[in-house]
Amino acid sequence: MPGENLSRDEARERAALLSVDGYDVSLDVRSAAGEGQREPRTFRSVTTIRFRCNEPGASSFADLIAPSVTAVTLNGKDLDPGEVFDGTRIALEDLAAENELVVDAQCAYSRTGEGLHRFVDPEDGEVYLYTQYEPADARRVFAGFEQPDLKAPFRFEVRAPEEWTVWSNGAGELADGVWRFAETKPISTYITCVVAGPYHYVTDTYSRTLPDGTTLEIPLGAMCRKGLAPYFDADDVFLITRQGLDFFHDHFDYPYPFGKYDQAFVPEYNLGAMENPGLVTFREEYIFRGKVTQASYEARANVILHEMAHMWFGDLVTMVWWDDLWLKESFADFMGAFANVNATRFSNAWTTFANRRKAWAYRADQLPSTHPVTADIRDLQDAKLNFDGITYAKGASVLKQLVAYVGQDAFLEGARRYFKRHAYGNTRLGDLLSVLAETSGRDMSAWARSWLQTAGVNSLTPQVLLDGEGRVAEVAVLQEAAESHPELRPHRVAIGLYRLSDGRLERYARVEADVDGPRTVIADLAGAEAPELVLVNDDDLTYCKIRFDDTSLATLRDHLGALTDPLARALCWSALWNLTRDALLPARDFVDLVLRFASRESDIGVLQILHAWANTALVGYVAPEWRETAGRRLAEGALRELRQAEPGSEHQLAWARFFASTAADGADFQLLQELLSDTATIDGLDVDQELRWAFLEPLAAHGVADESALAAELARDDTASGKRHQVRCLAARPSAAVKAQAWAQVVESQALSNALVEATIAGFAQPSRRDLLAPYAQKYFEVIARIWEDRSIQIGMDVVRGLYPSLQDRPQTLEATDAWLAAHADAPPALRRLVLEARDDLARALRAQECDARAAGA
Questions:
Q1: pTM for the full predicted model
Q2: How far apart are CA 767 and CA 805, in angstroms?
Q3: How confident is the model at residue 858 (pLDDT cuts 50, 70, 90)?
Q4: Whole-angstrom distance, CA of residue 434 vs CA of residue 453
Q5: Spatial separation of the C-alpha atoms in residues 133 and 145, rounded to whole Å
Q6: Which residues pair with 274 in a beta bridge?
Q7: Who contacts 783 (Cβ-Cβ below 8 Å, separation ≥6)?
Q8: DSSP designation for 313
Q9: For 616-650, how does the pLDDT look when each residue is reduced to its tens digit (9 = 90+)?
Q10: Which residues have a Cβ under 8 Å from the Cβ of 87 and sit 6 or more positions away?
Q11: Closest CA to 640 of 577, 594, 691
Q12: CA 723 to CA 714: how far, in whole Å?
């Protein structure tokens, strides 16, 4: 892995020296079909690059990761591959003012989801290919200058098995056995794409009349594996796509610039999706094989719109280097929710954003690895790890605050000027701030310093003083920051006052105000009736952790379910969860709140995140001696709500899944078995194949379902999805031999694909038998440096994160972590970051357990 790195300084030097006029890439993937070939299976890649050098005679390099290079020709001169290629780079000496480089290589198909991934469908033996490059894996498929600011037009041609179809960024035609694709606009290497195989493909068309009277027609396509075709609701995908294209055309005043718009749902994908212009790729789990809640459809719509926003923010205009990754990801994350709310049926998407996306940001922003939204990215390993909750969700939250700060019209006009001024180019922070200053009339530099160039999350707490008549004398907002990141930011917030009336907790007063500094008085609330709940950051305008005064917290403890506004309720749940994570609210109190009030949650997405948080509290935050009791109470509560839920409703489905995840004793397991065998039923509950696997995992983890039962289920669901479920369940079984086998498959072997590595790790790390995992705590620290050295960065991240011994939740694990960090001060910074983050999560869990134990003794 280290030899594959590229530093920011190297990229800057190369960008100052070179400019690229175009690529011709020819791939021959006919070797992908068929079995019995030796590994690593390879394909031929021939790349021709035309580029200029502004210092003739200078030296540089091209990037390529390949098992072998057959020939290298520079400006008509044959170079010795053994002399110029070191496995990751091709040395280029004595460059001319205008150059042509031709590289003929044998590149390897991937099994890790990086580069050109090859997947064999166990259901029918069909082979499927797709590429995934972000941030720098195009060099695994063709030679190039692998950095975002060396944009160029691309022409691809692909030879494939004759029964296959091939897609790329541009429109393609098949002639004489070769797929040839239209030249792209200037784009970065990491957003080029090839998808090939016997995919099921559906088409549609988008049409729009432009302001000049011309008609824009965009061919639409959507594809998936043939085995998923019966479940593929392409009509809904196209509906969201058309709604998104309308929305962005309405607001961006820049027509979609990349011709066609294909969307490929592909197997064993590492990401949620990738914004390759003209050919967006998604993980195929967004095709639902069983019944899911509307939250899943909303999430898919959000991802479709997020990737579509990238066509402008990221593809049309691209950051110079990964320091400004936020220029694409933060905007796409914000625009995904913004478009969802305003253009689709998911009008409550900001509620999901407030709970789910911002929870991701709050966690990331309190880790020792927190960083400003505009980050310091030294190299590609840094870049890979910065696709995190700060770059996405905090950045999106900051943009929501920016909209409140400058106004929506000024914000969107700034975006329009940004696209027109920098189309097909590369930008930095200052380029965006300058157009926003133009359109808003505000000085953006101070705002940027506070929000984009400092790290950490502020806490906002209301302070209420009453007069002698029981009315509000003064409401103030107190702002605090962590000692490690003491910046107190300017916040545009709404403050809501709530009171109980006829069993309903409703807002009766609201003001918007600028909060700045440690204490801000909200003058407009003086004289109001005394509130029973004060909600700072009502309507979720800013990015902060909400705190409560004593009266407000007491009100929520007794009446959270009476809060009528869904977004306000979601914000209160989020605030209570942050109090729990910060060891300010005992975890048993949060569990009690879930048991008492989650059943009254109307928003299905909020309900599902509450289930996830309750499970996290159970596994990590409650005092160990109360863990069994907490689990029993959650299982009983889940079963009660499952039986009481409306038959066939999505709430019933959510409670069924939560019950399975908390099942804790023989009666629970017996019910799950009876539901699987149809000897028991719950009115309206359809135990489809996906729900069957959800029921089987806890049965396997507790030793109730054995290997034969899992084999029988795989025979029932002999698909790629079924195989992943089975692998996870097999590794979950409570046996020392099973854990040893799973460890060996992940750590000592590279035979598993990325998807099966992920499934094995998930099954291995079961909290029900922490004793079986104890022997692997020390082994973890013995192997992670080797894993990081030997594996791709994606697999390295999966292993280092997934196998950290967090379930050995005791001070000795922290000590072992500290000892490894002290002994490996020179380890790659990205590896140290992953270990530090895992350590911080464990330390937080131990503090929460101490808080919970104190509450029990109080």
A1: 0.95
A2: 11
A3: low
A4: 16
A5: 13
A6: 281
A7: 747
A8: B
A9: 999 999 999 999 999 999 999 999 999 999 999 99
A10: 3, 65, 66
A11: 594
A12: 7
